[in-house]
Specification:
six-stranded antiparallel β-sheet; 23 strands; elongated
Length: about 600
């Protein structure tokens, strides 16, 4: 009795309603215990069922069942304490204090657990010591010793080694032994920081690994499974992610082969086009043969640009294949892991597919960029024929014809060889435009500046002209446009209207290329001509052939011809620049006139 009384007191077995030792104790969903008759009478006639202690409200009256384990403990306590409460009137008076929390299953188990010694590994407690007398209350202690064993899920084994009890007997006869054992690998099982019990359950609702006590306290109405079952589910998802990764790798390998085939076909097309162009130009005069060099040069530039594009696409695809293979390896390693917790923790990061590029619409352009050159050549041939007819009517000699053709068709050079130094004219800049000190860059500010409203200045369109007028020859310059979403570049007549709304068309003296919404290119013809570019240019080259009536645009880095205007200039033209509005900071980058590197 001394061992038992040192562990338990009568207050732990008292009902807070009747203030007596439990009779058929029952536990509410909130964890408090009362006599089943007391709590039912307390709730009878009540509109809302509440716990008498914590005042927790239950939407539906709980279907209470007798707590058999607590009843057995209470009966053993009652029998060993002589059938009384052990505390007399004093104990009853103590329990009348408002808010007094009486014994409950969880609290009782926790208190017993703290008082009991904490053995390690498997524990066996018998109701009788070997060779000694029975220990009073030993079966009670044994019933809860499993709760004091940390880091493992206890398994209870009841062994009845006594003969059968006599017929009609209500008391147990002989000895009973309770054995508590844990898993063989329990020393490797992580422990809950709150309850110091082994973590062996996964809560699907909160995505957490928890112990059994966590289930009853904070996850009692959640969807929970064992860690092993949860890991089997995650492994199935990992296997599916691995298959998806393998499919992505296969798609990219097929795209690489497709790009390589397209590049080979493109090279064959360039060779055929070059051979056809040689046959066409072989019948023309020496003046027209110079155009052949331009055509071959343009096709070669397009071929190099297409090769660069193909190499860049292949490089990107190979890089994605490498990354996907690394992801595949990581998925395999995680799938093969025996560490359930580490696997679940890393599952969300590893199983989420990385952002990938949709390559289905990517291909190598088959446009050789020769249409504009042929149109230009047709125009030159018409001029040549007119000159021939004129010479035939006026009686020009062969030498004069040769001289005339030389003036009409100057020797073709690389466009960079016609580079000129262009600067901005601050007297023409719109008040919102901000020019650099060296007059080489322009961007749009947030507000108007206080500037004189002279006749040369644009007052509505955010643009600026170059200071250098073009009245003869060929002139070339380059402008950095990378990072902008909108801009306009080209040339304009010196006599254009600069006030109010402007119609930007060749008939009104404007020839320029535009970008809108970051990827919509167009030439301001009548009507506007959309330009489709597979490679977005960072630098635009502009070539003006005054006598030829041409304004051409190039992708400098890709060495690609973009578009050529064909017209007749009747007066001086000026370089035209418009960074467009800054669109609340999305288009606040500048247009920069950069030096031309003719060595490239």
């Amino acid at each position: 009795m001394s061992l038992y009384s040192s562990l338990l007191s009568s207050e732990q077995f008292q009902c807070s309603i009747c203030l007596d030792i439990f009779t058929n104790p029952s536990s509410t969903p909130c964890g408090h215990s009362f006599c089943v008759t007391c709590i039912n009478q307390y709730w009878d006639g009540a509109k809302v069922c509440q716990c008498p202690l914590c005042k927790k409200t239950f939407q539906k009256r709980p279907d209470l069942q007798i707590n058999r384990t607590l009843r057995e403990i209470t009966e053993q306590f009652r029998s060993m304490s002589g059938g009384g409460t052990g505390g007399g009137t004093t104990a009853r008076e103590k329990n009348r204090v408002k808010g007094r929390e009486c014994a409950m299953p969880n609290a009782l188990l926790d208190e017993l657990t703290k008082k009991l010694p904490r053995p390690h590994g498997s524990v066996t407690v018998a109701t009788e010591e070997q060779g000694g007398k029975p220990i009073p209350g030993a079966s009670l202690v044994t019933a809860f010793v499993a709760s004091s064993v940390p880091d493992q899920s206890p398994i209870y084994e009841v062994i009845d080694s006594s003969p059968q009890a006599p017929a009609g007997s209500t008391e147990p006869f002989g000895r009973r032994r309770f054995t508590v054992s844990g898993a063989a690998s329990s020393h490797n099982l992580p422990v809950c920081d709150i309850h110091r019990r082994g973590i062996m359950i996964f809560c699907r609702t909160d995505g957490e690994c928890i112990c059994p006590n966590c289930v009853t306290e904070t996850h009692f109405d959640h969807d929970t499974v064992t860690l092993e079952a949860a890991w089997i589910e995650k492994q199935a998802q990992l296997k599916e992610s691995e298959q998806q990764t393998q499919n992505l790798i296969q798609e990219r390998l097929m795209k690489i082969e497709e790009i390589r085939t397209a590049r080979s076909n493109l090279e064959l097309g360039v060779d055929r086009a070059t051979a056809d162009s040689v046959c066409v130009f072989s019948a023309m005069t020496a003046a027209i043969e110079r155009a052949q060099a331009d055509l071959i040069q343009a096709m070669e530039a397009n071929r190099r640009a297409a090769e660069n594009q193909a190499d860049a696409i292949i490089k990107q695809l190979e890089l994605e294949v490498q990354e996907l293979r690394q992801r595949e390896s990581t998925l395999k390693q995680l799938y093969a892991s025996d560490d359930h917790i580490d696997g679940i923790k890393n599952f969300a990061t590893v199983s989420t597919p990385p952002p990938s590029t949709d390559w289905s619409g990517v291909s190598i352009t088959s446009d050789l960029g020769i249409s504009a050159i042929y149109r230009s050549l047709a125009s030159e041939v018409e001029k040549f024929q007119e000159q021939l007819r004129g010479i035939a009517e006026t009686g020009f000699t062969a030498s004069s014809l040769e001289t005339s053709l030389a003036r009409a068709q100057p020797r073709v050079k690389k466009v960079q060889e016609y580079a000129v130094d262009i600067t901005l004219d601050c007297n023409t800049a719109h008040p919102r435009l901000i020019l650099s000190d060296d007059m080489k860059s322009v961007r749009c500010g947030d507000r108007h500046q206080l500037l004189p409203d002279n006749a040369e200045r644009f007052d509505r369109v955010t643009c600026v002209l170059g200071r250098e007028a073009i009245s003869s020859g060929r002139h070339y310059w380059e402008v950095q446009v990378g990072g902008k979403t909108d801009w306009d570049l080209g040339v304009a007549k010196q006599s254009i209207n600069r006030k109010g709304k402007i119609e930007v068309t060749p008939s009104n003296g404007y020839w320029f290329l535009s970008l809108r919404d970051k990827n919509k290119y167009a030439c301001r013809t009548e009507p506007s001509t959309d330009v489709h570019l597979n490679l977005q240019p960072n630098k635009i080259g502009i070539l003006v052939d005054f006598e030829g009536g041409q304004v051409s645009f190039y992708n400098v880095e890709a060495k690609l011809h973009i578009y050529t205007f064909n017209d007749t200039f009747t007066e001086c033209v000026l370089p035209f620049f418009s960074p467009c509005t800054n669109r609340s900071g999305k288009n606040d980058g500048p247009l920069v006139i950069t030096p031309v590197d003719a060595s490239k």
